[in-house]
C-alpha cells in the first residue's frame, strides 16, 4: 500500500510537499477504513478549482504510466512552470507485507537526466544516474549497467522488471503486483485505465465477467434496476436489436417498468456509475490503488457516500485516492480526519496541503461545517462585492 508521497517542484507543487497515508491516533472507523498495517484505505482531496488536487493523483498515475504504459519522461509538463528550478522529484513510499519500499525519481527535462533510487527496508537495491546504474536485486551481488542497457527517457526500474521479473525477490514481485492491479478513472471524461492484463473498461469487463456481479451489487443495495448485456432486448411493444457483426449492447431494466433503456439513453449518473463499478468491484477483491479524478461527476450525494463506504468496508489492502467537490463526504461517519487533505494554491508559492487531522476535530464535530467555515483551509476566495 502507498504510505506516503513527497512532491518537489512537480506541476503546481513548487515547494517540497509531503502527503502521508498512515493513520493517526483516531479510534473510530479503524476496522473499516484502516488496513491491518496501519495505512488508511482511502484519501479524499478537497479544495478550490485549480488548486492542485488533480496533480496529486497525476503524480501517482505518472509512476504507473512510466512502469506499465511505455511512457517516456520526455516532457517539461511535469516541471513547475513558475519555479527557477530545472528538475522535479517524486518520492514514493510503500508498505508491502512486512517490508518498506521507497522509490525516488528525479528528472531534469532540459538535460534529459533521470535519477532513480530504490530502497528495500532502508537498503539501496537500485541506483541510477543518467545512463549509469547498479542494482542489488539478486542479493549482495552488484550488477553494473551503462548506456547500452539504459534508455535516457525510460525508467530503469521498468527495464529491470521486464528483464528479470524480480526473480528471487518476492517482496518486489508483490509490490509490482499491487501496482499493476491499480486503476485510474477520470469520472468526468469517462476514461478508465487499467495497468494489468485485465481491462476494466466497461465493455471488456462485461465481455469477460458478464453482468452477474454488477446486478448483485444493484440488488444488494436496492437500486431497483438491473442491466442486460446482449444483442437484443424487448418488451410487449418494441424490440431493440443490433446487427450480427456488432458488439453486444447494454440495456438498463428498471424494476416495475417493462421497457429496455439503452445505455446511451440513460442518465449521466447511471452511465458514470456503470463505468466506475467494474473498478470498485475488482479492487475490493484485489490489492491495488483506485485513483479517481472528479469522483462527484453526475452522482447524487447518497450514491457517493454508498460507494466510499462500500470500498472501505469490503476492501482489505486496497486504497482509493480521489478528488471530489462534494462536501457531504466530509463526515466522520464516512471518513476519518486523517483521510482528508485540503489543497490550497498560493500564487507564486504554488500548491500546499493541510490534513484535517492537524486540527484534531472530534468525532462528534461536523467536519463539513468546519471546512466551509475555513477551519481546514482549501476554500475558494471568491468575492461577490
TrEMBL record:
Signal peptide: none annotated. It comes from the Bacteria. InterPro entries: ATPase_AAA_core, P-loop_NTPase. Residues 45-331 form the ATPase AAA-type core domain. GO terms for molecular function: ATP binding; ATP hydrolysis activity. PANTHER family: ATPASE AAA-TYPE CORE DOMAIN-CONTAINING PROTEIN, ATPASE-LIKE PROTEIN. This is AAA family ATPase. It comes from Tissierella pigra.
